[in-house]
Specification:
This protein is an alpha/beta fold and about 425 residues long. It has 15 helices and 14 strands. Bound molecules: ligand SAJ. Ligand SAJ binds next to helix 8.
Amino acid sequence: MKIVVIGLGYIGLPTAIMFANHKQEVVGIDVNEQVIEELNRGKIHIEEPGLQAELDRALKSQTFRAEQIVEQADAFIVSVPTPNHDDLLKSCDLSYVKSAVTSILPVLQKGNTIIIESTIAPRSTEDHILPLIESTGLVVGKDVFLVHCPERVLPGQIIHELIHNNRIIGGVTPACTQAGKKIYSTFVQGELIESAASTAEMSKLIENTYRDVNIALANELVKISTLLDINALDVIEMANKHPRVNLLQPGPGVGGHCLAVDPYFIAAKAPEESQMIQRARQINTMMPDFIVENTLALLEKIQGKKVAVFGLTYKGDIDDIRESPALEIYHKLAEMPQFDIVAYDPHVQATFVERDMETAIMNADLVVVLVDHSEFRTLTSKDFDRMQQQIFLDTRNIMTGLVNEENYYNLGSLSKIKSAHRINVPV
Ligand code: SAJ
């Protein structure tokens, strides 16, 4: 089977390569000329464990090549970004998806299948994509097949999850679902769950919304517990010992291109009915300010000046800084002329980011940990000898080598920062 994958980003590229390494002929399409050129030379442009080796294999077997122009194929997979519109409820911007689908139309033939993998607002496949395709005169469900098959892989584990996760195959008609199943069965070992396009769209969105709301609850618990001088991290640990409770972890905010984006796609389609979803978004987007406030209170308490910010990505062990609360916190602190703020992240290459830890912590008064990179987990106080004062604010609760230090603060012990002038709590 020949498959054209449009959009060679964090999802499209691994997906294209997986098909190529499972005996399909794959052409990857991207608008970025440099990406095309590098991929054909054998270099991946994103950080994802195992992906480079998979590309090497696909190029060697000549089952994958990257191009700029869409060509005829049996199946087309659209995996392009769907950002938020800059409107009140940050609705779903379908323009890249529509333009990718439009680029397929001139080469579309009877019997072809079009699959939308991009995350889209509920009803988008039927209300927006279907009319585009049928404008050619081809009938969906009879001449060509249209499917929404949301990707559900976790960055950092994409290769494994692409193969083993269940996939929702949401066809516009039952014949579309069957056409989609045939394509993914070439390499997916998880269950291929038959569904309708709109159910698949909403299911994908609510999966990430569920996590966002759950994290908002944990973040709210931190604020409440800080006020009441209770350790929220201990509370979560205890509560999660209940067999039917699974609170997620609080942190400096929720980032990435999924949890911080998808809930708005639902909210914008049903503003009145989505009060809790919107409130959870607000709670999570306010977390960076809460961390900045606590950092400033701690700096005041310790009379500190230099801060080393550990981690800028939106989560650990990846190089992705999209929608990153850590980056937002860094920028907010760096704007304050009275402090010397250094960013350290072994995964991020940018001029303002220090990649040498020794240089970053030299004479620092405070280390603020914003990302749970594995490299940080094993650090002990010996590693911080060069600091002026060894004080830590660990928003991810991962510096296990330091937890017993007197000057170690995490989201369970923020009340210690303000304990000198604690506000009166209503009794
Ligand atoms: N986070 C917390 N506390 C937690 C877990 C996460 O604050 O307990 C934060 C992270 O630090 C990060 C953000 O949430 O800033 C998102 O991280 P994540 O690991 O929850 O999610 P993503 O965005 O990397 O990937 C999610 C996954 N969705 C689910 O697990 C339901 C993934 O499976 C999806 O494929 C992906 O979204 C997507 O593309 O939608």
